[in-house]
Structures are given as C-alpha cells and as structure tokens.
Amino acid sequence: MARHIGPVCRLCRREGEKLYLKGARCLSPKCALERRGIIPGQHGPNMRARRSKASDYSLQLREKQKMRRMYGLLEAQFRRYFREALKRRGVTGSELLILLERRLDNVVYRMGFAPSRAAARQLVNHAHLNVNDHPIDVPSYLVKPGDKISVREASRKLTYFKALMADKDAPPMPAWLSADRSTLTGIVQALPKREDIDVQLKEQLVVEYYSR
C-alpha cells in the first residue's frame, strides 16, 4: 500500500499550521512548527516575502493538500473520495469530510485508541481491531451507525493496550461516537454532521479546486 514515508513534520511546516500528525508531540515544545515555523526547503524563508497575495488557485491547492495530508491520503485516494462525495445528496464539501471521518482509521483515532491517524492506520493494518466482532484490516472501511469497534482479545495482552486501558485521561470525543477505554470498545452512534467535525478546513475551496 502506497503511503507517505518522509518526515511528516515537514508537512505541517509547509501548510503553516499543525495537522496533528504525530500525536502528543504536536502538543509539546518539540513540535517542529513551534521550533522552526518556516516553509521547508532552501527557498522557504523567502517564499512568503516574494508573493504578497496568494492567487485563488494557490489557496485552493493549499486547502486540498492540507485536507489530504491531515487524513493521510495520497492524491488518487483523495480524488476517489471527492468523486464519491459528488454523487451524494447534500453539500459536496461537507459530504467529502463526512466520508473521510467515517474511515475506520479515523474512527479509531477519534475514539482515543491511537495518538494519531497514522498510528490508528497501523493498528488496523495489523488486525488489532474488530468491527461488529469481525476482524477488519482495511483502514478505509467506512463505518455506519450502530457499528461496534473493539480491540481483539488477543491484542489486549500487548503492553500498548494494557497502558491504554489503565490511562484514564481520555481525549475529547465527538458527539457521534462513544467509547470506553477501560474495555477498549466503542460505538458509532450516528453519522457525523459538519458541525461535529472539529477541523479547521475550508472544504469549499477543495470543491473549487476539483471543479476547475
């Protein structure tokens, strides 16, 4: 499976804001954006100075890249989600975000079972998770209301999951999900709505980018 293998902190620096790709590190003084908040590359420090106003295309491209990188997708994958969102009733940008939020790796991250989406994707790939008591190792699996997400019994013996069950400091959870870290189980209560998705993204710019 194709994936980004370079330093992810460079992605945050390129977008000029935190994409929370490395879990707790993004909230610590070690965050690369806090330590060196300039665009990576030899021309990075002077890039903003050369152009005082970004073009419409530049704004659309950067928003598309930001969304794609935040959810950890390559361009071909992301474009397929956009085409699927176009077929659905409702606002295309909101439907795109809802599809991305319904990915199993994102749900595992939102439930607090992983510190980042990349870590959640690894847990799913290694078959540590069940959906409705059936093992699922496909990160792009789309959950639906009523689905039960749980850690497999064999995996609960691992040190990582033992520490997770003992940790009572659970992160905030969106209203459309519920989870119990002491039992490592969660329920998809409903489909997410745009107001439930706490990401600072301007999805209309992404729609405009692909509608050119």
UniProtKB/TrEMBL annotation:
List this protein's GO terms for biological process.
ribosomal small subunit biogenesis; translation
- What job does the chain carry out? With S5 and S12 plays an important role in translational accuracy.
Q: Which GO terms describe its cellular component?
A: small ribosomal subunit
> Which top-rank group of organisms is this from?
Bacteria
Q: Name the coiled-coil region(s).
A: none
Report the residue ranges that make up the RNA-binding S4 domain in this protein: 102-159
Its quaternary organisation is:
Part of the 30S ribosomal subunit. Contacts protein S5. The interaction surface between S4 and S5 is involved in control of translational fidelity.
Q: Tell me the protein's name.
A: Small ribosomal subunit protein uS4
* InterPro entries noted in UniProt: Ribosomal_uS4, Ribosomal_uS4_bac-type, Ribosomal_uS4_CS, Ribosomal_uS4_N, S4_RNA-bd, S4_RNA-bd_sf
User: What GO molecular function annotation could you give as one example from this UniProt entry?
Assistant: structural constituent of ribosome
Protein family per UniProt: Belongs to the universal ribosomal protein uS4 family.
Ordered alphabetically, the record's keywords are: Ribonucleoprotein, Ribosomal protein, RNA-binding, rRNA-binding
